[in-house]
TrEMBL record:
PANTHER family: UBIQUINOL-CYTOCHROME C REDUCTASE COMPLEX ASSEMBLY FACTOR 1 FAMILY MEMBER (PTHR12184), UBIQUINOL-CYTOCHROME-C REDUCTASE COMPLEX ASSEMBLY FACTOR 1 (PTHR12184:SF1). This is Ubiquinol-cytochrome C chaperone. It comes from Tianweitania aestuarii. Pfam families: Ubiq_cyt_C_chap. InterPro entries: Ubiq_cyt_c_chap, Ubiqinol_cyt_c_chaperone_CPB3, Ubq_cyt-c_CBP3-rel. Residues 36-174 form the Ubiquinol-cytochrome c chaperone domain. Belongs to the UPF0174 family. Belongs to the CBP3 family.
Length: 183
């Protein structure tokens, strides 16, 4: 009885997080990132775009309590479970996975900090620099970084316009990369 009473919200939060994660993955896999904006279509490049969208969503629900806080934690757990699964699919041994997960977690939280600070201050130059440093450190003048920074700022505003109830129901929209690049 108590489990049903108290477990319902937790289960709903897990269901919402899984739905949100699927939509975040879809947003991160928009072909324009890779075909037009020269993000490497590699496991690391896909990790970068997925991290970027995770950060955008978590930035939006930052400071929210209750169900959204639980959904945010469940979403983060889902993200790292997916990273773990992906590493195993790439052939990383069971012994090597925890070390790689630790490194990727440090990368993710570092990106979360730099992207959030730039979004908070509405500093597109700092955001573009963080994106370039993280996504294409091998390229000196990656001109598309400005497009991605602009997309992130627009997606952040778009997320801010969506009601929190939609997130609690497992619905999120980021907008299209192609729509963003036309403006």
């Amino acid at each position: 009885m108590l489990r049903k009473l108290f477990g319902r919200s937790e289960n709903a939060g897990r269901t919402a997080a899984v739905s949100l994660y699927e939509q975040i993955v879809a947003a991160a896999r928009q072909p324009a990132f890779y075909a037009q904006w020269n993000v490497p279509d590699t496991p690391l490049g896909r990790f970068e775009m997925l991290s970027m969208h995770m950060v955008l969503f978590l930035h939006r629900i930052r400071g929210e309590a209750g169900d959204l806080q639980r959904i945010g934690q469940n979403l983060t757990d889902e993200f790292f479970l997916d990273v773990d699964h992906s590493l195993r699919e790439l052939g990383i041994s069971d012994v090597g996975v925890p070390k790689r997960i630790k490194k990727l977690a440090r990368m993710f939280y570092g990106r979360a900090k730099s992207y959030s600070e730039a979004l908070d201050s509405r500093d597109e130059v700092a955001l573009a620099a963080a994106i370039a440093r993280n996504v294409r450190p091998d390229v000196i003048n990656w001109s598309e970084t400005r497009d991605i920074a602009h997309y992130m700022q627009r997606a952040s505003s778009y997320l801010a316009s969506q009601p929190l109830t939609a997130f609690a129901e497992g619905q999120v929209r980021f907008g299209s990369v192609l729509e963003e690049s036309r403006t």
